[in-house]
Design brief:
This protein has about 140 residues and is an alpha+beta fold. It contains seven helices and four strands, in the order H-H-H-E-E-E-H-H-E-H-H. The protein starts with a helix and ends with a helix.
Length: about 140
């Protein structure tokens, strides 16, 4: 937790930062320390472990690779940080991609770096509610 937050923050110029990030990321099959933090807080909250780096397909065609997903329930989540998702091109791409995920029949949550780091309980509650809702809907079908 603390190490991941440090590395994800402004730890520029720290010797061995990349190596530490790789080691931390190896704990989960993730692309960033922030995604590893998300997996850790979900696990600590007793939430069903997600599949990381999950590829969603529709009619056999690639739709998106999500940060985390619960394929059985068709729920996915993206970890969005302002640094990588605020540029106009990234913003547009994210909206288009999100729409395609929804049209493929999935529920897509957008979780923020700030939420994961400062309000982990609220993030876990949101994920838990989404999974419970999807579970209830699956029971109805």
């Amino acid at each position: 937790g603390t190490l991941a937050r440090y590395l994800g923050g402004n730890a520029r110029g720290v010797r061995g930062k990349r190596r530490l990030e790789r080691l931390l990321g190896d704990c989960f099959d993730v692309d960033s320390t922030l995604e590893a933090e998300l997996c850790r807080i979900l696990s600590n909250a007793g939430i069903e472990p997600p599949v990381t780096r999950y590829v969603i397909k529709r009619d056999g065609r690639f739709v998106a690779r999500t940060d985390v997903a619960w394929p059985r329930l068709h729920v996915a989540a993206e970890v969005d940080s302002w640094l990588y998702h605020s540029a106009p091109g990234a913003f547009e791409h994210d909206r288009d991609r999100g729409n395609e995920v929804l049209l493929a029949g999935w529920q897509l949550l957008h979780l923020t770096a700030r939420g994961i780091r400062t309000q982990p309980g609220a993030v876990c509650a949101t994920v838990g509610r989404a999974l419970a809702q999807a579970e209830a809907m699956a029971g109805v079908a």
